[in-house]
Amino acid sequence: ITLDVRLSDRISNTVDEGIDVGIRVGFMRDSRFVARKAADMRLPIVAAPRLIKKVGVPANIDALSSLPVTVALDINTGRPWPWHFKAGRQWTP
C-alpha cells in the first residue's frame, strides 16, 4: 500500500488528480461525492488574558465586532468563514 497524503485548503478536482479517498473538514459543496460525517470539529474561542483585562469579557456574540479577531478566509470566495455557536447562532467577522 502506498499513501500519497496531501494537505490543502483548496477544492481539489478528485478525478483529474487521481484522488480515491479524501478527508474534508468543513462544508460539502459538491453533492456528487458520497460523504459520511466522521466527527464534529469544535474550535474554541480564546483570548489573551491581557486583552480581557484591558477590554473585559464580551457580554454577547455581537460584542465580538469591537474586538481584534483572527479569521479563516474561504479560499474560493475570499470571505471570512462564519463562527458557529450553540443554539444555531453565528457571527461573521
TrEMBL record:
MF GO annotations: DNA-binding transcription factor activity; sequence-specific DNA binding
Gene3D superfamilies membership: Periplasmic binding protein-like II
A single BP term in Gene Ontology: DNA-templated transcription
UniProt similarity note: Belongs to the LysR transcriptional regulatory family.
PANTHER family, alphabetized: HTH-TYPE TRANSCRIPTIONAL ACTIVATOR TTDR-RELATED (PTHR30537:SF5), HTH-TYPE TRANSCRIPTIONAL REGULATOR (PTHR30537)
Protein name: LysR family transcriptional regulator
